[in-house]
Amino acid sequence: MFLPIVAKTFVELGYRRSTTAEIAGRCGVQENVLYRIWPNKKAMFLAAIGFNREVTTTTWRGVVEAAEESQGKKRGGRSAAEMILEHEAGHHGDWGLHRLAFAGLNEIDDEEILLALQGMYETFVGFIVDVVAKHREAAGLQKKTKGDLEVLAWGFVGLATAADIGRDLRLMDGKKRAKLMRELGGVLLK
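That's the Nucleoid occlusion factor SlmA sequence above. Prediction below.
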């Protein structure tokens, strides 16, 4: 119940500027209530990173299920990879959860934060590898090695990061970000 608020606080203030008092205030509770759940601010941040991973993969799983359902109803439906790309083109960064990763990058000297970020990105890359491999197979494209698919997946991560930076710096509006995701993402899928 508190985790979305905790995550939102870290998104808005970053790790260093977020205090347990601020987080508790936003949750509408005293700090000791949060300390019954998490022992300290770092544990709250680690939970927020886990929340980011869960929200993202749950969203992507929903898109995959919709893609599989649409493919079952008609031939020539879009692949899960194409539908995830389309979804991200329209909704990427809506929650601002990417800022958790950005804030965490400043803290990677801390082994637990480093491991949490590694786990999050390994999950994302693994998911992308799977949907891209299925897309390529269904499209009759040349099969790629797992290593090559991982490189492609990191290309998608880089693309999403560029869209995040463009959004946060107010250098790219929604149309430009969507075009970036669709066009360059489409190139990566080939």
